[in-house]
UniProtKB/TrEMBL annotation:
Domain of life: Bacteria
Signal peptide start and end residues: 1-25
PANTHER family: CARBOXY-TERMINAL PROCESSING PROTEASE CTPA, TAIL-SPECIFIC PROTEASE
A Pfam cross-reference name: Peptidase_S41
PDZ domain boundaries: 113-167
Keyword Signal: yes
GO CC field: outer membrane-bounded periplasmic space
Record GO terms (molecular function): endopeptidase activity; serine-type peptidase activity
Keywords assigned by UniProt, alphabetized: Signal
Lineage, highest ranks first: Bacteria, Bacillati, Bacillota, Clostridia, Eubacteriales
Keyword hit for Signal: yes
Protein name per UniProt: PDZ domain-containing protein
A Gene Ontology BP annotation from the UniProt entry: proteolysis
Length: 504
């Protein structure tokens, strides 16, 4: 009926052509059309074209012609596709050509020299150096001011410009000059693959193991995870800290396999709903019961823990095998299919509803941690250090001077905090020599005026920086120690095979 009325209105307008422009102008200013009304108008105009258009016919499709004409412009095509997919939910989207790999990387890696920096006046200051990276091995230190890279003066440049000069092809070299205190230093760095691995692990202490998943992706990371479980059990660990902070998700099947390797019993640990045509299909995922019977898993999570990371957390917590520490998670209880195309574009379509064992639908809500803990940002320890005296100090000296020296070396990372005392010890000497080598000073067993001045300059460069106190990890370690003190619930034979001592 609406279509007929619109067509009738168009016919009337056709017969009243002399006043058409004015009438349309008046109607447009008097009425704000809704999206539905605009769509109906488009359909009516398309129908009118088919009936009365001199170059059209009943078999014509004006809307299709319009889309094809519009799609000749790639930007308009991208806008339309994003609008179509985004109209369904916040997770469905269109990824333009050439950008899928960067939009959904399988790892947070890049080729560069391994430094983090921030602008400090007209120059970029190094704030962190990746352990084992090219910059670290060459001797670049936090606090250094970047002067040149590849012969290009960096004064006044934005961080993005500096980053592009430091990055490049793996194995290529870049020469960097820095200002360290009063000294200008020159380094030749060989660019290498840098970044955060998807998986890492370590033995923390007796009974406590640590694993971090940055993203559930790549088979090599999963294999490392399997070997880490073996290392954990061979060290007879009773508790595990599983760090999922900042984990955006990734491969859902890999997350299922991670859970399967951690659960010591056979149980339905998660459910999901998919749709085929108009029928919704519900399925559950069951573990094999092959995991070691740990006393408890402590999961670290934050607001950037999402999707597959939330599946791991809620499954293990709902079933009683884990507790969580940190902050409310992102809240993504939906999964997507990724239709990728040869031009590196993709259509991401929400197609799976994730269903936790007992937690209600957490889509858009997130998971509440068992223990809510927020990290703190505080001033760098260098800010609270008094200047190191410029008079000579050496092994065996006692007093305020050695105390200031020890505090400075500890603030700069050369001494552990528990080694700070009023005495110039062997530990002080070893830390001082390391500092002298890093700052290209003459190596000496004496903290002389040159070493003192360099130390004070380094303290000054750090004083305006901040550091994050990881209270979340501290709480997780506290809990892990408590659970590790309880009797072990599995045994390991000489071949590394695990036998759980609990009822399945």
């Amino acid at each position: 009926m609406k279509m007929k009325k619109l067509l009738s209105a168009l016919l009337v307008c056709l017969m009243l052509l002399p006043t058409l422009t004015g009438a349309l102008a008046a109607s447009e200013t008097d009425t704000d059309l809704t999206a539905d009304e605009r769509y109906e108008r488009m359909e009516a105009i398309a129908e009118f074209i088919k009936i009365y258009g001199i170059d059209s016919s009943r078999d014509d499709d004006p809307v299709m012609r319009a889309l094809l004409t519009m799609f000749e412009d790639e930007d308009l095509y991208n806008i339309f596709m994003e609008s179509m997919l985004g109209s369904y939910d916040s997770h469905s989207m269109f990824i333009p050509a050439g950008t899928y790999d960067s939009a959904f990387p399988t790892t947070e890696s890049y080729v560069g020299v391994g430094i983090t920096m921030q602008l400090d006046g007209e120059y970029a200051k190094v704030t962190d150096v990746a352990e084992g990276g090219p910059a670290d091995e060459a001797g670049i230190k936090p606090g250094d001011l970047l002067l040149t890279a590849g012969g290009v003066t960096l004064r006044g440049k934005e961080l993005t410009e500096i980053s592009s000069l430091l990055r490049g092809e793996e194995g290529t070299e870049v020469t960097v000059t820095v200002q360290r205190g009063e000294t200008e230093l020159r380094f030749t760095l060989t660019r290498a693959q840098m970044g955060t691995p998807n998986f890492s692990s370590r033995l923390v202490e007796d009974g406590v193991y640590y694993m971090k998943w940055a993203r559930f992706a790549d088979t090599a990371s999963y294999i490392q995870f399997v070997f880490a479980i073996q290392d954990m059990t061979e060290n007879n660990c009773r508790s595990l800290i599983l760090d999922l902070r900042g984990n955006p998700g990734g491969d859902l099947n890999m997350a299922y396999n991670v859970i399967n390797r951690l659960l010591p019993v056979s149980v339905d640990f998660f459910g999901y709903c998919t749709k085929q045509n108009d029928e919704k299909i519900y399925r559950s995922v069951t573990s094999d019961g092959i995991g070691p019977a740990l006393n408890k898993i402590i999961i670290l999570s934050d607001g950037d823990s999402a999707s597959a990371a939330e599946v791991v957390q809620v499954s293990l917590c709902d079933l009683g095998y884990a507790v969580s520490v940190g902050e409310q998670t992102y809240g993504k209880a939906r999964g997507q299919y990724h239709l990728t195309f040869t031009d590196n574009s993709a259509a991401v379509i929400t197609s799976v509803e994730l269903i936790a064992p007992s937690t209600p639908d957490y889509e858009g809500v997130g998971l509440t941690p068992t223990y809510e803990v927020h990290n703190e940002t505080t001033r760098h320890p260098a800010a609270s250090c008094d200047p190191v005296p410029t008079g000579d100090m050496t092994l065996g000296f006692v007093g305020d001077g050695p105390y200031r020296l020890n505090r400075a070396l500890a603030a700069l990372g050369y001494l552990d905090s528990e080694q700070v005392s009023y005495t110039f010890t062997l530990s002080t000497l070893a830390a001082l020599i390391s500092f002298q080598q890093d700052y290209q000073l003459a190596v000496s067993p004496i903290c002389n005026v040159y070493s003192a001045q360099a130390l004070n300059s380094a303290l000054e460069s750090y004083a305006d920086q901040t550091v994050t106190v990881d209270l979340q990890y501290e709480k997780a370690l506290e809990l892990a120690r408590e659970y590790a003190a309880q009797p072990q619930q599995y045994v390991v034979d000489e071949l590394g095979n695990v036998t759980n001592l609990i009822d399945d």
